[in-house]
Design brief:
Helix content is 44%, strand content 12%. The chain is α/β, with parallel strands linked by helices. The radius of gyration is 27 Å and the shape is globular.
């Protein structure tokens, strides 16, 4: 015998009568009891007097705003799940709604089926939980303009929700995404909307610092700890006291240092290099990587225990080609920013230029898009960027590959594309970067050519067999099965 669907008490707070009626009629058809009010003051009084499961509250209301209603109600430990309704899906609204204690938020125009499904889930949840979790209130209005996360795609909206829910908790966060997707920006948003927002945000790039100096960079050192240590130095953990420490590209951290980091995360204390004093640490750690860290664990290049300690909350940032609907928003944002920062006077992009930008695969993600627009603006003869100004595909100014090119030419083109997609901050250790990108496919191709015979492969490569065997292990290369 099936269980009948739960019927809930719903309140709609919106100053537009047509919107209230549309929501009320749709939910009433599902058996819910729906009340309506046109302003936040009446909405707050109604919420305090009734026992509602869910309330749909518009942000922009005459007099008291929807956010103010949410603030006053959650401060009174209200039991109604508040769903914020907004006609303008900005990053600040999305994160702030969740951070202030909203159960969810929806944007106009909304899909009625989605609204009905959401109401059903909330009513079912309210039957199990007596109250929704509320977050301590603190205004961050001055931080919102600096959070430059652009996007209204479903994937980005989910990220905003996670940021809002995790920001005020002490949980360690692992951010994963390809290079150029904006991992540090996400980390800064977590910090800005947390209770630690007044303390420092400190970032350290684990791949940009030589392995023998990274420990000192993170934990500091005492005078005389090693050659060149002429003074005591404070490390990143001390600099981030009370705030947030971003460990960027953590998958490149050497294994011995991974063990020390694990102990710091577990014990919440550390010692400077060359020191004996134990220092407490209270910074919140956010880690980021552009690699599939599970594969690094399988290849024994990353400690499994540290990985499980870091992945308390995981945020996956999608590559740009998976959220193409955000490209026009990003183009508008970057044009405004580069006009301000570089003195350009670009008015916008033509339809054919936008079509090119929307169709590109963007291997360098958001960073590549910004660089393409800056180059186009610098060289374009007019203030409106056209398709001819966009250096993509086989257009003038682009790096084109054709069948007549030699291997060296193709490699040269791809290296130039790689350099174009790098920001100045990433333009370091290029020799090791390029060699690292080329070595694995080279070894895999030669091993496939020799049917997995390592002796013949080593001869073809002109290297020692032991060296080849070592690199096969380090690069986690799967040997082809021997035929015959």
């Amino acid at each position: 015998m099936s269980t009948p669907p739960l019927r809930g008490m719903v309140l709609v707070v919106d100053d537009e009568p047509d919107v209230r009626t549309i929501i009320a009629d749709a939910l009433a058809d599902d058996g819910h009891h729906v009340d309506q009010v046109g302003n936040a003051e009446d909405g707050l009084k109604t919420l305090e007097q009734g026992a509602y499961d869910v309330a749909f509250v518009d942000i922009n209301l005459p007099g008291m705003s929807g956010f103010e209603l949410l603030e006053r109600y959650t401060k009174g430990d209200g039991e109604t799940a508040i769903i914020i309704v907004t006609g303008r899906a900005t990053v600040a609204n999305a994160i702030e709604a969740t951070r202030r204690g909203a159960y969810d938020y929806v944007t106009k125009p909304f899909d009625l089926d989605d609204l009905r499904s959401l109401t059903k889930r909330v009513v079912e949840r309210q039957a199990l939980y007596a109250s929704v979790r509320t977050l301590r209130e603190r205004t961050r209005a001055e931080f919102a303009p600096g959070i430059e996360i652009i996007g209204q795609s479903p994937a980005m909206n989910e990220i905003y929700k996670v940021i809002g829910r995790v920001a005020s908790s002490p949980a360690t966060v692992l951010i994963q995404g390809e290079s150029g997707t904006g991992k540090e920006i996400i980390a800064r948003a977590i910090h800005a909307f947390s209770d630690r927002w007044e303390a420092p945000f400190v970032a350290v790039n684990c791949s940009a610092i030589p392995a023998d100096l990274l420990e000192s960079e993170m934990f500091g050192h005492e005078r005389g700890a090693f050659t060149g240590a002429t003074d005591r130095r404070m490390g990143k953990f001390e600099q981030a006291a009370g705030g947030t420490l971003l460990l960027d590209e953590i998958s490149d951290m050497p294994l011995p240092l991974q063990a020390k980091l694990l102990r710091v995360l577990q014990e919440r204390e550390f010692s400077r290099v060359g020191g004996h004093e134990t220092l407490p640490t209270d910074c919140r750690v956010v880690a980021a990587t552009n690699k599939a860290i599970e594969r690094e664990v399988e290849a024994k290049r990353f400690r499994a225990d540290l990985y499980f300690r870091l992945k308390v909350v995981v945020i996956e940032i999608p590559p740009l080609h998976e959220r193409r609907r955000d490209i026009p928003l990003l183009v508008e944002f970057f044009i405004e920013r580069m006009n301000k920062n570089h003195g350009f006077k670009v008015k916008g992009v033509s339809p054919d230029a936008m079509s090119l930008l929307a169709a590109h695969t963007w291997p360098g993600n958001v960073r590549e898009l910004e660089n393409v627009l800056i180059r186009a603006a610098a060289l374009a003869p007019n203030r409106l960027l056209t398709g001819e100004d966009i250096p993509l595909g086989n257009r003038p100014g682009a790096h084109a590959i054709n069948d007549s090119m030699s291997l060296g030419d193709v490699v040269g083109v791809k290296i130039r594309e790689h350099l174009d997609n790098l920001g100045d901050i990433d333009a370091h250790d290029l020799h090791d970067q390029v060699v690292g990108l080329v070595e694995k496919p080279l070894l895999e191709a030669v091993l496939a050519r020799t049917d997995g015979n390592q002796v013949r492969a080593a001869e073809m490569l002109g290297i020692n067999r032991n060296t080849l065997r070592k690199r096969i292990t380090e690069l986690a290369i799967e040997l082809p099965k021997t035929r015959g």
